[in-house]
């Protein structure tokens, strides 16, 4: 594969494809254009009841873009439950560059000034492409997802792309969308004038959680 630039990567996202590596030690990348795409409809986001109780406890401090590189490294690390990941050095380089350009963001859970979980993704117009998440403490990545959805909703986003569907993500309302339908949704979303909202207050987030639970 020809060496990728951040600009080429943004063009690929706008066209509905994204890169991955076979493993964290593989130096090459390949393009993914799945037949079915994972999409989390923001208007029907669901928070499991037990997680609502955890959110209200406020165990973690939430920050956005405080340490983007550390989040990518957390997603890349090998664990007992995840012995291999698809994030290699080239992925890390590209997404760090997108972050520096303002196109990639992280949502982070901190506990006593230690990063314990989070997620990162790419923002383009009114579309947000979730890339990866990790947890070192219970529910940290789930809580980060809830805070991401609150910020996307507040910022006027139209699409949250999760790439694939897992049992974990289905609990939040993620569904599969055929490629053609996804690309139609994407074409509309990238034209929207959305703004990522890193500074959502605790009161604003509480209001968001309350509105979700009332709809469930």
What features would you describe in this structure?
- The chain is α+β, with helices and mostly antiparallel strands.
- It is built from eight helices and nine strands.
- The strands form two sheets. It has a seven-stranded mixed sheet, sandwiched between helices. A two-stranded antiparallel sheet has the order 1-2.
- Helix 5 (140-155) links the parallel strand 7 and strand 8.
- The longest helix has 16 residues, at 140-155.
- The radius of gyration is 16 Å and the shape is globular.
- The protein starts with 5 loop residues before the first helix and ends with a helix.
Instruction: Please tell me what the overall shape is.
Output: globular
Global structural class = alpha+beta
The number of distinct β-strands equals: 9
What's the CATH architecture name?
A: 3-Layer(aba) Sandwich
The CATH first-level class comes to Alpha Beta
Euclidean distance between termini CA atoms: 46 Å
Widest sheet, order of strands: 4-5-6-7-8-3-9
Q: What's the helix count?
A: 8
Here the CATH topology equals: Aminopeptidase
According to CATH, the homologous superfamily is Leucyl/phenylalanyl-tRNA-protein transferase, C-terminal domain
Biggest sheet architecture? 7 strands, mixed
User: Hey, roughly how much beta strand do the residues contain?
Assistant: 15-25%
Q: How many independent structural domains? A: 1
SSE order, one letter for each helix or strand: HEEEHEHHEEEHEHEHH
Low-confidence stretches: none
- Estimated helix fraction: 25-40%
């Amino acid at each position: 594969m020809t060496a990728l630039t951040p600009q080429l990567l943004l063009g690929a996202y706008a066209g509905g494809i994204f890169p991955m590596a076979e493993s964290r030690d593989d130096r090459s990348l390949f393009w993914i254009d799945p037949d079915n795409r994972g999409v989390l409809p923001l208007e029907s986001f669901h928070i499991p009841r037990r997680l609502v109780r955890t959110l209200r406890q406020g165990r973690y401090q939430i920050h956005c873009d405080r340490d983007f590189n550390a989040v990518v490294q957390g997603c890349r690390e090998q664990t007992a439950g995840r012995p291999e990941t698809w994030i290699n050095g080239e992925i890390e380089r590209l997404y760090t560059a997108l972050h520096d350009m303002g196109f990639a963001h992280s949502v982070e859970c901190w506990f006593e000034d230690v990063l314990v979980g989070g997620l990162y993704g790419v923002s383009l117009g009114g579309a947000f492409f979730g890339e990866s998440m990790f947890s070192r403490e219970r529910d940290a990545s789930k809580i980060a997802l809830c805070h991401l959805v609150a910020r996307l909703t507040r910022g006027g986003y139209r699409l949250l792309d999760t790439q694939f569907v897992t049992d974990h993500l289905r609990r939040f309302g993620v569904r599969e969308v055929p490629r053609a339908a996804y690309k139609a949704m994407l074409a509309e979303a990238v034209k929207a004038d959305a703004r990522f909202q890193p500074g959502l207050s605790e009161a604003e987030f509480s209001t968001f959680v309350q509105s979700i639970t009332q709809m469930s």
